[in-house]
Amino acid sequence: MLFALVLPLLAAAPSQAVTCLPVPDAVVVLGDKAVAEYRASLKPDAKAPSVSAAPANAQLLLRLIWTAAGRKDPIKALDPFMARAFTWSLGGDAIAQQALTEWAKDDSMPKTLRAAIAGRCSTKGNTVTCAAAKGPRLVLEKQDGCWRWTAFVAGD
């Protein structure tokens, strides 16, 4: 009898890929219900690449970043998905807000980001790297059991 009651609850529980999605601070302060509603509202565009070479729990984040880059205001849409310590320039400060400020000056950045995600992805340990044939690479790192977008940078 208990099994019959618990099974539907487990089936309705969000996957780890969903519960690991980053949430903006402005939503977090509103409480658990707001966080759950925010995460439930995140849906990748149907045209987003499958990124099947990435681990299953990283695929949703990659597809959401690709979708955000195609939004009307991509800079604002990308912000919640970025780790606050974010590498965007080798030798520069690892600060997400600086990356967003610089990207806002470059109309081609969203297209370049989408090309990286649609390019080739590879996984090595706790790092997923996606890159087009030319251009910067996107990096996700697994931190505390969750995938985080930590870099979008050219060069080695």
- Approximately how much beta-strand content do the residues carry? 15-25%
How far is the N terminus from the C terminus?
57 Å
Helix content: 40-55%
Mean pLDDT across the residues is 87
User: How does CATH name the architecture?
Assistant: Roll
CATH class: Alpha Beta
Largest sheet entry: 5 strands, mixed
The tally of strands reads: 5
Runs in which pLDDT lies below 50 for 5 or more consecutive residues are 1-12
Number of domains: 1
Number of helices: 8
Order of helices and strands: HHHHHHEHHEEEE
* Rg calculated over all Cα atoms: 16 Å
Structure in a nutshell:
By secondary structure, the chain is of the alpha+beta class.
Feature tags:
156 residues; Nuclear Transport Factor 2, Chain: A; 5-stranded mixed sheet; 42% helix; globular
Describe the structure in your own words.
The chain contains eight helices and five strands. The chain has helices at 2-12, 16-19, 25-28, 32-41, 56-69, 74-78, 96-103, 109-118, and strands at residues 82-87, 120-124, 127-131, 137-143, 146-153. By secondary structure, the protein is α+β, with helices and mostly antiparallel strands. Strand 3 and strand 4 form a beta hairpin. Helix content is 42%, strand content 20%. It has one domain: Roll (Nuclear Transport Factor 2, Chain: A), CATH 3.10.450. Strands 1-5-4-3-2 form a five-stranded mixed β-sheet.
